[in-house]
Design goal:
With 306 residues, the chain is mainly β. The protein has 1 helix and 24 strands. 1% of the residues lie in helices and 51% in strands. The strands form 6 sheets. Strands 1-24-23-22 form a 4-stranded antiparallel sheet, with no helix packed on it. The chain is globular. The protein starts with 11 loop residues before the first strand and ends in a 14-residue tail after the last strand. Bound molecules: zinc ion. The site of zinc ion (ZN) has 8 residues, from strand 10, strand 18 and strand 22.
Length: 306
Amino acid sequence: MTKVGKAMTDVELVLDAKADLGEGAIWHARRELLYWVDINAGFLHVFEPKSGKDDAYRIGEDVGTVVPRISSSERPYESVMLALRRGFAVFRFDVAKAYVVADPERDIPANRFNDGKCDPAGRFWAGTMPEGPGGVPDGGRLYCLYPDLHVEVKETGIRCSNGIAWSLDQRTMYYIDTPSMEIWAYNYDLETGALWDRRVAVHVPKNEGYPDGMTIDREGMLWVAHWDGWQVVRWNPRTGRKISSVKVPAARVTSCAFGGKNLDELYITTARTGVKAEALRTQPHAGGIFRVLPGVSGLEAFEFAG
Ligand code: ZN
């Protein structure tokens, strides 16, 4: 086990973004960039730690998450995949435009897409959540967009679809439906994308905050952002135990991703949505992007293969 030293507590504000609902942190190793989104504000962000530059692209609707997409000799432009209110989309940087490729919930206007991630086979998984009038409380679903652009429903009865990660042996998928206060594990088939045998890997005690975004480190441990928990927690999915925690100077911690040249930096998004003006005085950098050296490294993010 890697020893976690003093660096653990030294959380650094790297971008005072004041995002309403910063989310979806993901490091694109090929470009050495951090992608993230401001969901309610409807922006895709591209942050370059080297220069401190952050480019914001207005999408014009909720942006649940962003994932990298493989480069192709047939495409002379860079692009990423987004999960929007209207479904799965390609975003092209050359024209700064999103193109919807699949909208599995066209008939459920009360739902919007939320968090998501690509699996080791390059499929894009993202789930939905009800939001606003007419929404069915457990009417969210988990979807998977295959590289050939067909979509499959992978889970139903979801309240607030959030973090997803795959085990190092690629035989287990971890998934969070936030209000459950649990991290679920499924058997997972890399070949087909099939899921079965759901069980609870971690029960999250209420005082830790709500489990939100998630990533996995090189030791197979889960790093989970805790909404209203002021922290990112490292959980052992095999024992269900909390190993350690990174304190963040914002209550609403939403997602985290390993980044940097050696994937040994942890980038953390936060939100200020719903935090009263009074409370914001004690967390002036809520909505910012933070970074910490957690003492362990992560894996390169999988890219969408379509
Ligand atoms: Zn989230």
